[in-house]
Amino acid sequence: MRKILSISYSFFIFLITFNFLFAEDLSGHPPAVVITAGFDPLRDEGDKYAQALRQANVEIYHRTHDSYIHGFVNMMVVNGVDYALKRICDDFKKIF
Question: Could you give the angle at the alpha carbon of 17 between the alpha carbons of 11 and 20, nearest 5°?
Answer without folding.
Answer: 110
